Automatic annotation (TrEMBL):
Domain Aminotransferase-like plant mobile span(s) in chain numbering: 12-122
Protein name, entry field: Aminotransferase-like plant mobile domain-containing protein
Pfam families: PMD (PF10536)
Single GO biological process annotation from the record: meristem maintenance
Domain of life of the source: Eukaryota
Database matches in InterPro entries: AminoTfrase-like_pln_mobile, MAIN-like
Organism the protein comes from: Linum trigynum
Length: 123
């Protein structure tokens, strides 16, 4: 799937995740003479880095799970997804998970994933 959608075969998949740094290094510059297929691959890589780094960040903040790759397979379908609702749901789940960890441990600094910019207007 990576080869078909990104044009690159991944050999080092640690736990089914792609490092966002690898995406940024690999898809650094798109040539003006690039084919439409290559342009789509770069667009998918950029969207994948946004999904993993902004919309659904994990606690490490440096990787994106391969499960999100199917979201950028077909742009027409991706445009019909309820992205806002899913991002908000993900943030709520992460907040609940973090709160549960904090009640089970004595530390106050639980790991929290999610897009914190959504919390700013509410706060």
């Amino acid at each position: 799937m990576c080869l078909r959608l990104l044009g690159r075969a991944l050999t080092d998949l640690d736990g089914g995740v792609i490092r966002i740094a690898w995406i940024r290094e690999t898809f650094d510059q798109l040539l003006l003479s690039a084919s439409p297929e290559t342009t789509e691959q770069f667009a998918r890589a950029y969207a994948l880095s946004l999904i993993g780094g902004v919309l659904f960040p994990d606690r490490s903040g440096g990787s994106v799970h391969l499960q999100y790759l199917f979201l950028v397979d077909d742009w027409r379908k991706a445009g019909r997804f309820a992205w806002g609702a899913v991002v908000l749901s993900y943030l709520y789940r992460e907040m609940g998970r973090s709160a549960l960890q904090m009640t089970m441990s004595s530390s106050l600094g639980g790991d929290l994933g999610g897009w914190f910019a959504l919390l700013m207007p509410w706060a």
